[in-house]
Design a protein that fits this description.
CATH topology of the largest domain: TIM Barrel
Low-confidence stretches: none
CATH superfamily of the largest domain: Glycosidases
Order of helices and strands: HHEEEHHHEHEHEHHEEEHEHEEEEEEEE
CATH architecture of the largest domain: Alpha-Beta Barrel
Shape: globular
Largest sheet: 8 strands, parallel
Radius of gyration: 25 Å
Number of helices: 11
Strand content: 15-25%
Oligomer: single chain
Number of domains: 2
CATH class of the largest domain: Alpha Beta
Bound molecules: ligand FHN
Distance between the termini: 38 Å
Mean pLDDT: 95
């Protein structure tokens, strides 16, 4: 009896899987626009950048997570909501925004020194305050004591250092009276029409007034009110790409006709890259991510994007932890966007300077193993990561955990021979030994490393597997 029901259950399951696999695609007007990776020059540049600086800066930087003497541990940029601060009270922080220590050129120099190739900045976060002088709201930088177009200063300064700039834009807007979390009535629907028109105007403004912008990074799009407006998300992507051809848009913007987000109802990625990896990286086994472009964004403390006065609340990642995340991300074909939250005075905290210094020193010697590099196609090993530039025969081994034996085990893909290996810095050779079919050992000199070393592994084709006989089990 049990056997029969089990058999039937299996048959039904097989039938469903078969049906799903062979189901006709759902017809969509506002689904994915193309399949696979974009191959144009702008996208190749975006991809080769690999390392970016995220900047969360807004009015929330002024209270820094503290309101009326009470510290709120949740993310500083959510203080308005955590401390239940009325909109008019919060909005009046605008009259205090005058960052005396701000220096766009110094920010850009720090970023350049860290080795980033792009920067993504909050032009408007959930609070609704705009770091640019918008014609469509008074709630913007021009009406603060600072007055100047701080966004333009930053774009110019970063571009002068050769760093691309992308604009973060929150669709969710706590300031705008027409924002709705859901659409449950005709009035909600009309309000959202007005809100989305306002945002369309602002997006056009950003694309037109800052001609060097390289990408738009949308956020705050998870509510039903946006899921029910897939058409608008599609139109915004098209509009931005029309005004600024080549501009790169993240997957968070998009919802399709049926409200599916990131991926449309047929499972295809919308936007130009997957931007769902937030405060986490795909595990090394999740190799499917190498099939598309993706970016991980990362905080330094556990969950603080905007400036918070008290970082003792959670673990603060060390510079080497963050460097490892950058390398991990590159080794899986992704971009790593590391967040900085400057204070209301326009300066970065000492921990952020330390991170920039540490990673910058490493990048100054080793950026060749990151920028322009990708998934190498070799099996991940416990001691670290592999990266490779295109189809080059050289592979970079970046070592974070030196084994007690001092021996790095390597499994190469079939028909790959390791010819030699040496330290990128200084060129000292590393002993290479072939130990079994497609398996090698690299013996490190018996010393500890102050920073993660990069070992260049030179390979050639050729099949020397014939000398090995598989076990007859
Ligand atoms: O709520 C925001 C958060 O403040 C921050 O901007 C991050 C960055 O990815 N995005 C949202 C949460 O997903």
């Amino acid at each position: 009896m049990f056997k029969n029901s089990f058999l039937i259950a299996c048959l039904l399951l097989a039938q469903t899987v078969f049906a799903q696999k062979n189901a006709a695609p759902i017809p969509l007007k506002y689904g994915a626009q193309y399949e696979g990776k974009r191959t144009d020059e702008a996208m190749q540049k975006w991809r080769s950048n690999r390392f970016g600086q995220f900047i969360h800066w807004g009015l929330y930087a002024i209270p820094g997570g503290v309101w009326n003497g009470k510290t709120y541990n949740y993310a500083a940029e959510f203080l308005k909501s955590s401390a239940r601060i009325p909109t008019t009270t919060w909005d009046s922080l605008m009259y205090q925004f005058n960052p005396k220590g701000f220096n766009a050129k110094a920010w850009a120099k720090m970023a350049k020194g860290m080795g980033v190739k792009y920067m993504t900045i909050t032009t408007k976060h959930h609070e609704g305050f705009c770091l640019f002088p918008s014609k469509f709201t008074e709630f913007n930088i021009a009406n603060t004591p600072y007055k100047k177009d701080i966004l333009k200063e930053l774009v110019d300064a970063y571009n002068a250092e050769g760093i691309d700039v992308n604009f973060y834009y929150s669709v969710l807007d706590w300031h705008h009276p027409d924002w709705r979390y859901d659409i449950k009535s005709e009035a909600d629907s009309m309000a959202m029409v007005r809100l989305l028109k306002f945002e369309e105007n602002q997006l056009r403004e950003l694309a037109e007034n800052y001609p060097t912008v390289k990408g738009f990074w949308f956020d705050g799009t998870w509510d039903n009110s946006i899921k029910k407006n897939g058409k608008w998300t599609y139109e915004m992507e098209m509009m931005l790409k029309k005004i600024r051809p080549g501009v790169v848009v993240n997957s968070r913007l998009r919802a399709d006709d049926l409200g599916a987000r990131h991926r449309d109802s047929n499972g295809k990625l919308m936007g130009d890259y997957e931007s769902g990896y937030e405060r986490r990286l795909p595990p090394a086994t999740e190799l499917k991510v190498t099939q598309w472009d993706w970016e991980a964004c990362m905080t330094v403390p556990e969950n603080q994007w905007g400036y918070h006065k008290d970082w003792s609340i959670s673990h603060v990642k060390t510079p080497v932890e963050l460097l490892e995340m950058l390398v991990h991300t590159t080794s899986m074909g992704g971009n790593f966007l590391l967040n900085f939250g400057p204070g209301g005075d326009g300066t970065f905290r000492k921990e952020e300077h330390n991170i920039a210094d540490y990673i910058g020193k490493w990048m100054a010697k080793n950026s060749d193993a990151i920028v322009g590099c990708d998934y190498a196609g070799w099996d991940k090993q416990d001691w670290g990561y592999f990266t490779r530039r295109g189809k080059e025969s050289k592979v970079n081994a970046i070592v974070f955990n030196v084994p007690v034996s001092g021996v790095l085990k390597i499994k190469v893909p079939a028909k790959t021979t390791i010819v030699k290996a040496y330290f990128k810095e200084g060129g000292k050779p590393v002993t290479v030994k072939e130990v079994a079919k497609d398996q090698y050992q690299l013996t490190l000199p018996g010393k500890l490393f102050a920073t993660p070393p990069v070992i260049i592994i030179e390979t050639s084709g050729g099949d020397n597997s014939k000398q090995y006989k598989d076990a007859l089990t």
